[in-house]
Amino acid sequence: MSNSFRTKTTLDKGVTIPSLIFIISICLISAIFPDFTETLLNKVKNFIFVNFNWVYVWCVTIFVIFLVYLMFSKYGNIKLGSNDSKPDYSFFSWVSMLFSAGMGIGLMYFSVAEPMQHYSNEVLMGNSTISPAKNAQLYTFFHWGIHAWAIYGTVGLSLSYFAYRYKLPLSLRSCLYPILKDKVKGKWGNAIDVFALCSTFFGITTTLGFGVVQINSGLETLNIVPESSFIYQIIIVGVLVSISIFSAVTGVDKGVKILSNINIISVVILLLFVLFLGPTVYIISSFTEGMGSYIHNFFKLTFNTHIYEEETLPWFYDWTILYWAWWISWSPYVGLFIAKISKGRTIREFISAVLIIPTLFNFIWMSVFGNSAIWFDINVANGLLSELSSNPDALMFNFLEYLPFTKVISLLAISIILIFFVTSADSGMFVMNSISSKNSQNSPKWQTAGWGILLAILALFLLNAGGLEALQSMTLITALPFSIIILLFVVSLVKALAIDNDYYKRDFQVTPWSGLFWKERLKQIISYDDQKSVDEFIENTVKPAFKELHQEFVNNGIEATVHFSDKPKSVEIEIKYDVVNNFVYGVKNQSKLVSQYLIDEDNLGGFEEDCSYLPITYFGDYRKGYDVRLFTKDELISDVLKHYERLLAIISEEKNEMFISSNANKK
């Protein structure tokens, strides 16, 4: 039975067993002793927030500065993958998925509640000369803006880079490879993955638990269910988790992608609905001024620890530091999911999209909902919405009652929350299965479904016992050590990028032309070859050169292989290694489109087709190739040897051992 189980599961014992023991133990303690556990963990959390809040402030600031630097640096053009890799998803699908996984239910839960709570907080506004509404928007922007996405972006970028560029497993342990080297394969690596799995599970469980309460409250407001009770919450969880499991087992390419696309479209519809049926002029004007205020106060907000404003310190701990801890605790989950869908993007493209697009959308969303609620509270509700600010479960739906077509818009809001619930759960299942199986690509479907079932059972168990708050505190406590781990990710990424840049920018001397046969070469320069002539060049010049060189390698005790292909015509010479990446030098027949201007130019000799064909080099490490149609056989041999000499020079340097490891031979 034991052998049968091993053949049917990809779970790694060193990661899964310790994680499950810790997860179930904490959940049982939180459920059996909810008050004691919550009190104890709150004391630990408050101690950390009061005494180590500066750690969160500095870490988040470093992440922002680091990503902005990379975006504009020479490293921005490096791809998350080999140099010729292409993105797996369209830009729209990619942004939809990272957005749905990154914020999800929180946008619906806090879009009205947070601005209203800041707006009605007398302590926060006591020493401010700014209007309460403007201040509320400023702090909401701050908590949901670039700083939050910089945390996700740093983790996601590290994972993407080491997984797709260095061909290491898509695992948090891989992000420390430059520091720990082969130790990441042992207990140190397991410890990092256990930490990530537990943090992910706790974060998703608490979020889904609170999300169910909001869904139940919305259904009660619309008279779809008679009350908010545990029975209805069980039904809601059962239905939604079943859909989530179905979505997760169909894979990212189907279920998660389709639901994310539907969700982003639904969100935009709801956004436009509130924008045009609410106080439109007020919303647009307040958004414009809010953007200016955010940019103007960016650095002040970033470094502010409120040490000179003691009366605001409790608010600072309960909001800003709590948010930074919450985003950090969620970053293993969101980072892994973002990394999974980001192969083929450049570093600049990745950072630009992750930092700017979701941030801008969050600002628009929070302005439309938060500022509309404040406007209604002042001009229509006579403060009734402010009084509900401490009850975010019902606040969103009470706010919607002041808009036309209340039932329709409330149903749309519930639909979005439901889809956010499903997309958070299915991507969470996918990520947890990935961590627990060390990113195995052949996991059985029951294994992914098992994480969903465990999520549902423990979320309901804690919800009924009142232990969700304790679990939330536990999640926030784990953020402190993980913030230090993310800083180490930054150090590893800096080291790796420097090696990467040196490797691909390393100069090599192209074989010089001696000047012989210049008349023939002039004819080649001014002509544009067709496919047949390039095939003949590869057959009559490149192939003999590689065969001759292959024989000489063999004579010197080096095992080499020459590979041929006809569609398209190509020849390559390969030297395989066990420790370092293989040496490959190939030439292939490659077409390129030609400008119409050149086709119409009589003084260039002319040609009949709208494309020309060239013999272009390619290499095992995916460096950019070049045209060798002017090379003779001996010059080609010389060029191959110069690249081989370059490889030997690079692998002789200790600092490059990580980048040229045999992982690069993986496809």
From TrEMBL:
Belongs to the BCCT transporter (TC 2.A.15) family. NCBIfam families: bcct (TIGR00842). This is Transporter. The chain crosses the membrane at residues 15-33, 53-72, 92-112, 141-164, 191-210, 230-252, 264-284, 321-339, 351-376, 405-425, 446-468, 474-498. It comes from the Bacteria. GO terms for molecular function: transmembrane transporter activity. InterPro entries: BCCT_CS (IPR018093), BCCT_transptr (IPR000060). Keywords: Cell membrane, Membrane, Transmembrane, Transmembrane helix, Transport. It is found in: Cell membrane. Its main location: membrane. One of its GO terms (cellular component) is plasma membrane. It is a multi-pass membrane protein.
